[in-house]
Amino acid sequence: MTGKRKRGGGLGLLHHAKTITGNNGGGLRTGKSLKPQQTRQIIRRFHQLQKNKHAILTRLRQFYDISGCKYEVIKQDKLYRESFNSFKIPAKYCDNEIYKIDSTLSRSDLVEILAKIDSEIEQRGGIEKYQTASAQGQTSKRGGDSSKKLIEWLRTEKYAFKIGNDVTALEIGCLSPRNAISTSGIFTSVIKIDLNSQDPLILQQDFMKRPLPKNKTEKFNLISCSLVLNFVPSHEERGKMLKRITKFLKEPKDDNSIMSSLFLVLPLPCVSNSRYFDNTQLLKIMESIGFEQTFYHEAKKVAYWLFDWNGKLKRARFSKRELHSRSNGNNFCITI
Ligand SMILES: C[S@@+](CC[C@H](N)C(=O)[O-])C[C@H]1O[C@@H](n2cnc3c(N)ncnc32)[C@H](O)[C@@H]1O
């Protein structure tokens, strides 16, 4: 495999992706303060590359035995290292182009594309750059910290009686230890975790690998999952994350006196412009794992939900099927 193939041919390169926002990207630049359009481009490109990477790793499993398919093992592959080191992001490169991963690709094709994706992510500044872009989107000038909406809801009568002396929270995908969840004074403790911590007050941890609570004191009254599910690369894993969240929530009481809630935020197009998903489907999935919506708010670009957990999990299955035939729709989906 030479790796010298024309763009648009060989190696599944490259075709235009339908992004969640439906916009095309331009070039990315580095720099401390990013313009809103640049932050959106960085976030979008990062999500595309992550999705591609996940598809490649899934396909690669068929070529390796389980132990050989470990990512760390693939990264030692000579072809991987050569492709990683030689890849340069083309000067004229549309950020909306993605690799086409299909069954025609051989093992070496897949390893080569994986190396190019990893190289592109590194050249673009890695997950840190993505997080900077996300954090800048959180500044008050840019519409701000999504957890303000949560605090506004928790201060309503509906929740006032559930806020006692010992109310705890877990924030999955935390970029700032100074956001409204942490500064509201509502919670006695807020455990903040992220795949890539940007602050000593944020624990570096993959929620999917966080040890399950051993007793009720290790469970939380509130879990925040804001703009995280759309970061998770596959619809199956998004469903798994939602189910896993239930294992970390305090047991609800019949009189509803205990807070056991989930704050969820998604980019609006996930529910407004997907071929495979919408708000009705989300609510069906949530209901099947015991969540009842208490608040919903649709902003221009983002949708917010607050759910109470009733502890009742049903044996329901939700697969990926077309719900809306939208030629410009995105492919966001959650399955269980
Ligand atoms: C777009 S940022 C959202 C940040 C913030 N919650 C907000 O609402 O703006 C997504 C963050 O989720 C984190 N993340 C994604 N999957 C995660 C996981 N499995 N465990 C912990 N953090 C995760 C990423 O590292 C990233 O920093």
TrEMBL record:
Protein known as: 25S rRNA adenine-N(1) methyltransferase
Enzyme class: transferase
GO cellular component, one term: nucleolus
EC number of the protein: 2.1.1.-
Family indicated by similarity: Belongs to the BMT2 family.
Subcellular location per the Swiss-Prot or TrEMBL entry: Nucleus, Nucleolus
Highest taxon, organism lineage: Eukaryota
One GO molecular-function entry: rRNA (adenine) methyltransferase activity
InterPro entries: Bmt2/SAMTOR, SAM-dependent_MTases_sf
Pfam families tied to this protein: Bmt2
Protein source organism: Candida oxycetoniae
Keyword S-adenosyl-L-methionine assigned: yes
Residues that bind S-adenosyl-L-methionine: 173, 194
Protein's job: S-adenosyl-L-methionine-dependent methyltransferase that specifically methylates the N(1) position of an adenine present in helix 65 in 25S rRNA.
Cleaved signal peptide residues: none
UniProt keywords, alphabetically: Methyltransferase, Nucleus, S-adenosyl-L-methionine, Transferase
